[in-house]
Design goal:
Helix content is 68%, strand content 0%. The chain has 6 helices and no strands. The two termini are 26 Å apart.
Length: 107
């Protein structure tokens, strides 16, 4: 059985990114530290009910949407993270090498 804290954390991260918010921005809006939000998104901590209510309000979602755990949000997050890491390379050859190495590790 999957860890509910990790699933919820991944879902929060997905919804935050989908709204175009940084951890700092969202944490300020729901009165948490960015570090606390980071710990929630990684599944280390669980959100209090009052913070869940704030989150639902700030993200302008229905309560059930917070608990819709499917595989697509995880894929989106991984894809975005890979793109960010590749963009750090200034040289296009390094970007291509990183992409090639990533693909090789998939098989």
């Amino acid at each position: 059985m999957a860890d509910i804290k990790k699933q919820l954390g991944q879902r929060i991260k997905y919804l935050r990114k989908n709204k175009g918010l940084s951890q700092e921005e969202l944490s300020e809006m729901i009165d948490l530290t960015a570090r606390s939000l980071g710990n929630i998104e990684t599944g280390r901590f669980f959100m209090s009910l009052s913070n869940i209510e704030k989150l639902i309000d700030v993200l302008n979602i229905e309560p059930y949407e917070l608990f819709v755990f499917d595989k697509e949000p995880q894929k989106d997050i991984i894809f975005e993270d890979v793109l960010k890491k590749i963009e750090k390379f200034k040289d296009n050859n390094k970007k291509l090498y990183a992409i090639s190495a990533f693909i090789d590790n998939l098989s």
